[in-house]
Amino acid sequence: MRKDVNELKETTKNMQRTLERLTLSVEDEGKEVIEYRLEKELGEKIKLDRIFIDNEEIDIYGASNELLVIGEATVRLGVGLIDEIERKIEKVKEKRPDLIRKRMIKLIYVDIATPDSIELAKKKGIWILTVKGDITPRIIHELS
User: Fold this and answer.
1) Domain count, the chain
2) Residue 109 forms beta bridges with which residues?
3) Over its length of 144 residues, how does the chain's per-residue pLDDT go in tens digits?
4) Boundaries of domain holding 17
5) 99: domain CATH number?
6) Residues 90, 97: contact at Cβ < 8 Å?
7) Using an 8 Å Cβ cutoff, are 34 and 28 in contact?
8) Is residue 21 packed enough to be buried (19+ CB in 10 Å), middle (13-18) or exposed (0-12)?
9) Exposure b/e, 37-50, CB count within 10 A at least 16 = b
């Protein structure tokens, strides 16, 4: 039994490493695609990076003088991540108002999105996109 448990632990570690590499690849790809599209379509040259607020990671963050771009990158999008991004944005507003700008694009870069997550993202004005194009429209929110 001990041998089986050790093999299971090793398999779990390998799966975790693979998942981490895959997630980082989606984040990196997403940042490149989003930076390119923002510059090409909006004339906004914004460097995207990840940030941490109270040890909580936000995969995609960048800002110009007036535009904030904030979001997540994921292989598979479900409704839980929609709620999570909304909560994280509120946390940034509360804890780091210096990072907020007059206008904001909320986004999620994905490989696959479930139909219910697409509908919820539309209602909340979240831009869902892939390397192939938009799943939901890009909305620029005006903040007061």
Assistant:
1) 1
2) 73, 129
3) 888 888 888 888 878 877 766 666 889 999 999 999 999 999 999 999 999 999 999 999 999 999 999 999 998 999 999 999 999 999 999 999 999 999 999 999 999 999 999 999 999 999 999 999 999 999 999 997
4) 2-142
5) 3.40.1350
6) no
7) no
8) exposed
9) bbeeeeebebebee
